[in-house]
């Protein structure tokens, strides 16, 4: 891979232009005859929290998995950090994987491992570290996500829903990624837990300069945590921008989603 572009915490490239860390163009993904995405374009900018919305089964998870290289595309380009992923050899792909952190729906922790061991799974795969250093790093990640030290030796089954999410986030952060993918991170949390998790994501974005790609149905997260929102419908991204762009859209799905009583009741006073 070529040298990284100069990183700026405010998402600016060195020439002052915002930098797209993920650039998807004309993407088509199909399973047999079933076309999931066709002609999809999307940019994810460095340092932003991008909320990704769309009706159930529209392809939000498939898009995430396609960007991560887990699903084959039948057309289009995906550039990550300025490089076309099709041009990368195996070694470069592995290097790229280390710059991603992924938190799957429901946390997806290994139930037979402790929290600490879960956090150490990616470290063991990619880094050659002594057991003492592995422990030290896992404890740092625990602190980063606001979990107490005594959570380290617990099994996932001993944790509350909110703690499981935090442990899964700690694992996603284990290799100090530049981009984290979060699949419905606040689903199943009560409103207080969800708001605390959003706060945590915003703090990590500020302190680590993280870029966050967050699939979510949570209106509060969209309103309070996301810098921009991208909406998936009709097999492509139909709108992308701040909340005001979503509210101004004439697309029937967006009108129903953001114009419904539930959405309006939660809308921040400024809109
Ligand atoms: N491996 C696969 N083989 C065949 N079809 C698949 C595969 N993975 C996903 N699909 C189909 O692709 C479509 C999009 O699925 P996806 O999980 O991305 O939806 P989603 O937008 O994330 O939905 P939800 O909000 O309900 O999680 C669905 O119809 C699903 O059945």
From TrEMBL:
Name this polypeptide is given: ABC transporter ATP-binding protein
GO MF assignments: ATP binding; ATP hydrolysis activity
Entry superkingdom: Bacteria
Keyword terms: ATP-binding, Nucleotide-binding, Transport
SMART domains: AAA
Family: Belongs to the ABC transporter superfamily.
Organism per entry: Bosea caraganae
Record InterPro entries: AAA+_ATPase (IPR003593), ABC_transporter-like_ATP-bd (IPR003439), ABC_transporter-like_CS (IPR017871), P-loop_NTPase (IPR027417)
Keyword Coiled coil among record annotations: no
CDD domains: ABC_Org_Solvent_Resistant (cd03261)
Lineage: Bacteria, Pseudomonadati, Pseudomonadota, Alphaproteobacteria, Hyphomicrobiales
Record-annotated ABC transporter domain positions: 22-259
């Amino acid at each position: 891979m070529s040298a990284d572009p100069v990183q700026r915490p405010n998402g600016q490239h060195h020439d002052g232009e915002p930098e797209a860390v993920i650039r998807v163009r004309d993407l088509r993904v199909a399973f047999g005859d079933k076309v999931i995405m066709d002609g999809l374009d999307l940019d994810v900018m460095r340092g932003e929290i991008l909320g990704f919305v769309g009706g159930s089964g529209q392809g939000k998870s498939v898009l995430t998995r396609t960007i991560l290289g887990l699903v084959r595309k039948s057309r289009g380009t995906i550039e990550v950090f300025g490089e076309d992923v099709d041009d990368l050899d195996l070694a470069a792909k592995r290097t790229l994987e280390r710059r991603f952190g992924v938190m799957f729906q429901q946390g997806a922790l290994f139930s037979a491992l402790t929290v600490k061991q879960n956090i150490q799974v990616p470290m063991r795969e990619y880094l050659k570290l002594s057991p003492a250093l592995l422990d030290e790093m896992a404890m740092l990640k625990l602190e980063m996500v606001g979990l107490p030290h005594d959570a380290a030796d617990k099994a996932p089954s001993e944790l509350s829903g909110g703690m499981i999410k935090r442990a899964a986030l700690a694992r996603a952060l284990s290799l100090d990624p530049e981009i984290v993918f979060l699949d419905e991170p606040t689903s199943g949390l009560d409103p207080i837990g969800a708001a605390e998790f959003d706060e945590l994501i915003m703090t990590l974005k500020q302190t680590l300069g993280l870029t966050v790609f967050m699939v979510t149905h949570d209106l509060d997260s969209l309103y309070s945590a996301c810098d921009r929102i991208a909406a998936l419908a009709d097999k492509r991204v139909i709108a992308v921008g701040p909340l005001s762009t979503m509210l101004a859209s004439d697309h029937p799905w967006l009108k129903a989603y953001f114009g419904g009583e539930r959405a309006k009741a939660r809308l921040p006073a400024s809109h």
